[in-house]
Structures are given as structure tokens and as C-alpha cells.
């Protein structure tokens, strides 16, 4: 039987700091309606989809930032998403700031079954940015302040989506640049990576390495390589446009296991893109060029788990 | 002081099965002369540069293949390369089939100092293809027959090239598709990856995963992602063109730490490409977005070294 999945990526335009969750949720419900009309079985929303990208705003007292976090899903504010999922028989992926009952804070994503159950939860592992206010920066990027490192690893679960059972996993934003995360998912036969991001168009730590005009290219390069090298699909879904004067670059994409871009958002606003995914491609990749059991050589990979930072290599000593 | 390196990649056109090493070496010496005229300080030759890509030819008795291997470097046949290196003060990277005194066979590469000393040796870890004759295939790809898995890991050494000390490492052909190899090099602060390949234009194991027209794209994608994610330069250097009716795809490239292609060969013959590499880019990458010590999370990467093949994920169980 053919395993085909109709996958939607729902890019969100900007959410201003002053806007409440009702604004974002209302727009997301409209995107779910559109996804339904396009025949989608699953819709992927971005990282921190319910609010502005608040890690750009400093709070000396973390408790003053509590209003950016969710303490329960669903909540009154997010209930309309769950209602729409049920109405349209549409699973959805949602990124949000999570505050746990015991006070831990994570940059989190969930995949929600149309019946409202959380099928999979992931907490971002690779937090970019910094912890303390940095007077050198024009714009803060305080993810290391507002979130703890995710404690769930990179989980994969086989879950029903539409007619199929699909091996789903997640990455969040900066995770996409780290091949380790992709590979841990690949080692669990991931078929669909749901990946939300909020990425500024301008690198505020720019010291010459990353030109502004390459930022979209680097994002796409990382996602395309991750999909190709792990024989999986991904929906890389952005928050886009101008949030209180700070531009996010958009360019959401759906990528296939050949690393090809199947669909791309080209606006800076709310935009739904859809692709028809042949899940058989994943198995083909897994059993040929990326048959890990046949080709991987973990005995040569020791440094990947044995060390965190890089070390300088030895200097060559001429025999003469 | 500015750290700039003039890097040359010397693509080789086809070498027919009947042609001796003298033919290849003569062409390589001419490319070294060209590299010298372009001001290059180092030239990178492909994988198995001295002969045709012999793993396409089956020998029941391995001893009958001995003539494809080098037992010493330099040898009478390869001495002209060493002489040219000295004459032009030009380091060179050479891929060749190695047979050791105790009878082991490897797909090997070395970097040779202009004075003729071997600075670094690497033996290919990720061997593609198969070990036994496969009657299903129109063309054999017997690397797993002709070579043992490399036993040197992914070494990096800090070596003099021209005016600079450069952290050099190597990958060979199929290695480039495996982010693990790149990362092990990156964890040793590699600045220049020398990478030779022989890649057929047509995938003879084609079962639908990899379309022929994507093969160059996949090669470039892997090299560009490897360079970006490890903040290094690479010279990806092909054997190209029609070897006894079997086409190799060429498209050698030099890539910078932003993943950008700086130079590309566009012929299917002997062709030298050159790029002026600012090694400071490597350090910038290593100290910002890819500051491994600050951002990597090995505690979440355990599967990468703990398992070889992939495992199926657990199935989701609805709470209801």
C-alpha cells in the first residue's frame, strides 16, 4: 500500500509584543481551516507560536516573564486549536514556552493528535544566545536565560497521521544546524521532522562569519542536509516578518529525503504550504546509501560523545 | 597577521583501465606546474588518483588486483610528483590504493610536504558498495572487497602550508555524506578538509531513492553542510569523465566555512581550480555560532556512538 502523507507547514507572520494569544490563535485556526481545505492531515506551526519571540526582551526578574509561558495545554487561550484539530481531523505541531508545575522552563514543542492528546513532546536541546543582558548587542537573544536545556533527548514515536503510521520527531530552531540532533532522530528511523523556528534576518552578533544574506541559505542548507543524510522529510516552519521592528526571515520549507525543497513560503506573513509526501522514500534511503547498520563506523566517532568543545590538534614534527 | 592560503584543487579527467601510472602522473605534474603558476601553496588530487577507479572491476583472486595498489611512496612511478612538489614548493594531497607490508589493503590519502615527507595519512572509513560479485548490478562497486575499513580514525594535524600553519584533515569520497566524519574533524579544529572522490554519474543500485540528476547536488550538499557546520574549508576533488564507458560526475569544488562554493570545475577533464582562503573565517565560526564548548550537548547524542544501525521507534499508545 502506498504510504502518502499530505503535510502542511503553517508559517506565521509577526506577532507584536502587545498582542495577546487570542490574536495568534485566531490566525492559527484560520490556517488550520485552510490546511483542511487543501486536504492536509497534519499542520506544523513554528517555534514559540503563541507569542512574539520574547527572548529578545530582557527581564531582570524571571518571574516578570511568566506571562510568556504556558502552564497547561490546552488552556482557555489554546482551546480553539484543539477544537479545530478535532473538527478538521487534523493533527498539529505547536511550539510554545513551557513552565512546568515545579518551575522549570523549556522551549517546547508538541504534536497533538486530532483527538486532543499529546502524542510527542520535545524540549529544545541547542539553545542559542546568552544568559545575561549583553550591552554590546543591539538586540538581546536570551534563550539561555529563559530556558533550560531540554531533558527529553531527541525522541521519536510511531504515530497515526491520517491513514498512516508515521515515525515523527522534532527539532527546534537552532537545533537544525547541529547534525547530531538529526542523526539521533535518524537512528530511530524518523520519517518526518517537525521543526519550528524564529530566526532574525540580521545577525546581531555579527563578527563577519555569517553575512546577513546567507542566513536563509544556512537554514535551508542545514535542513536539506539533515533530511538527505537521514532519509526523512522535514517541515521547517518560520515565524516571519517584522515583530516590533525586529525582522524574522521566514522562508519556511518542506524538504524530502533527497534534500529537495518541495514547497517554500515566499511571503513574510501567515502562509500555508503543502506537500504530498511519499513515505516510501524514507525506507529506500534507509536501506541503500544510508543503511546505517551496513555503513556506519561508531568506533571512529568516539569524540562526538566523549568531548563537548573542540581541541587543538597536535603540530606536525618534521622527521628531518 | 592575515592567514591566507592559496588552495588548488586538481580534478583529473578519466584514466582508462589500460593506462599506466605514467600517464596519470604525467598529467598530475602538469597540473602541479599550473598550480604553481597560479600561486597555489597546496594542491589536492582525487581519491585513487593514480589509476582507473578499479573497484568497478571484479577479481575473484584478490592477489590478481595487486597491481592497482602502492606498496611504497614515493615509488619509481610516483617520484615525479615528489620532485615537482620540491621544485614548486607545493604541498600535495594524493589518494591511492595502499597495500601494507603485512598485506592490509586500504583506500588511503596522504598530504605530502614540499620536502617529500608525509605529513598526514588517512584511510577511508566509510566504504560504499559490496564485497562479493553482484550479478544484479550492471557495474560492480567492490570497495568493501578491495579495502579494509580505515584504522586511523579521522586525524587532524597542524601543518605548515606556505606561510601558515593550517589544521588539516581528510575525508575520502563516500565519507563526505556522513556528518560524523566531519564532526570528528571539527572537534579537532580542522581548517582544511582535503577530500577526493570518484563518483559515478549513474547510480547502479538505483531503486528510486537517488535520481541520477541529483547526484552532484547530493555531493555538494554534503560538502557544503560539512564545511558550514564545522567552520572549515574543503577541497572536494573528483576524477571525472568516461573511464572505459563508465562516467564519473566531476564538479570538483572548493567550499568556504559559510558553505559557499568558491570555485567549481566545469569540465570532465583535467582542470585546476584555485581559491584564496581566509583562514580567519574558521576561527570566527568556531567562536560564535559553532562554539562547540558553549552549545553542544553530548548527553543527548548517546545513540551516535552507542548504536550502529537504526532501530524502530516505539508506537504511540493512545491514553483513551
Compile the SSE list and pairings:
2 copies of one chain form a homodimer.
Chain A: E1 4-11, H1 21-37, E2 42-44, H2 79-88, E3 91-99, E4 105-112, E5 118-123, H3 143-146, E6 157-161, E7 164-172, H4 179-186, E8 192-198, H5 215-230, E9 233-243, E10 246-249, E11 253-255, E12 261-264, E13 271-278, H6 280-287, H7 292-295, H8 302-306
Parallel strand pairs in A: 1-2, 2-3, 7-8, 8-9
Antiparallel strand pairs in A: 1-13, 3-4, 4-5, 6-7, 9-10, 9-11, 11-12
Describe this entry's structure for a reader.
With 320 residues, chain A is α/β, with parallel strands linked by helices. Chain A has one domain (4-306): 4-Layer Sandwich (Nitrilase/N-carbamoyl-D-aminoacid amidohydrolase), CATH 3.60.110. Helix content of chain A is 22%, strand content 27%. The first copy, chain A, has helices spanning 21-37, 79-88, 143-146, 179-186, 215-230, 280-287, 292-295, 302-306, and strands spanning 4-11, 42-44, 91-99, 105-112, 118-123, 157-161, 164-172, 192-198, 233-243, 246-249, 253-255, 261-264, 271-278. In chain A, the strands form two sheets. In chain A, strands 6, 7, 8, 9, 10, 11 and 12 form a seven-stranded mixed β-sheet that branches. A six-stranded mixed β-sheet of chain A has the order 5-4-3-2-1-13. The mean pLDDT of chain A is 96. Chains A, B: It comes from Paeniroseomonas aquatica. Chains A, B: Residues 5-279 form the CN hydrolase domain. Chains A, B: GO terms for molecular function: hydrolase activity.
Amino acid at each position: 500500500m502506498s504510504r502518502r502523507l499530505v503535510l502542511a507547514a503553517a508559517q506565521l507572520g509577526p506577532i507584536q509584543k502587545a498582542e495577546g494569544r487570542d490574536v495568534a490563535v485566531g490566525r492559527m485556526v484560520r490556517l488550520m481551516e485552510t490546511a483542511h481545505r487543501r486536504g492536509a492531515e497534519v499542520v506544523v506551526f513554528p517555534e514559540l507560536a503563541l507569542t512574539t519571540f520574547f527572548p529578545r526582551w530582557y527581564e531582570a526578574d524571571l518571574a516578570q516573564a511568566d506571562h510568556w509561558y504556558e502552564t497547561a495545554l490546552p488552556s482557555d487561550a489554546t482551546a480553539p486549536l484543539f477544537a479545530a484539530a478535532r473538527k478538521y481531523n487534523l493533527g498539529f505541531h505547536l511550539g510554545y514556552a513551557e513552565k512546568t508545575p515545579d518551575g522549570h522552563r523549556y522551549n517546547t514543542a508538541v504534536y497533538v493528535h486530532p483527538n486532543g492528546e499529546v502524542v510527542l513532546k520535545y524540549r529544545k536541546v541547542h539553545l542559542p544566545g546568552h544568559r545575561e543582558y549583553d550591552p554590546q548587542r543591539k538586540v538581546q537573544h536570551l534563550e539561555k536565560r529563559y530556558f533550560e536545556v531540554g531533558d527529553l533527548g531527541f525522541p521519536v514515536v510511531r504515530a497515526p497521521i491520517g491513514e498512516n503510521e508515521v515515525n515523527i520527531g522534532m527539532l527546534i530552531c537552532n537545533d537544525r544546524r547541529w547534525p547530531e540532533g538529526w542523526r539521533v532522530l535518524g537512528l530511530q528511523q524518523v520519517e518526518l521532522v517537525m521543526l519550528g523556528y524564529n530566526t532574525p534576518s540580521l545577525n546581531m552578533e555579527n563578527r563577519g562569519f555569517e553575512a546577513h544574506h546567507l542566513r536563509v541559505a544556512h537554514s535551508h542548507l542545514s535542513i536539506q542536509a539533515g533530511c538527505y543524510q537521514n532519509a526523512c522529510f522535514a517541515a521547517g516552519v518560520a515565524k516571519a516578518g517584522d515583530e516590533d521592528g525586529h525582522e524574522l526571515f521566514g522562508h519556511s520549507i518542506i524538504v524530502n529525503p533527497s534534500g529537495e525543497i518541495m514547497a517554500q513560503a515566499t511571503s513574510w506573513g501567515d502562509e500555508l504550504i503543502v506537500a504530498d509526501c511519499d513515505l516510501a522514500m524514507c525506507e529506500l534511503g534507509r536501506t541503500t546509501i544510508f543503511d546505517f547498520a551496513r555503513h556506519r563506523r561508531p568506533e571512529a566517532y568516539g569524540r562526538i560523545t566523549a568531548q563537548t568543545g573542540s581541541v587543538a590538534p597536535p603540530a606536525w614534527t618534521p622527521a628531518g
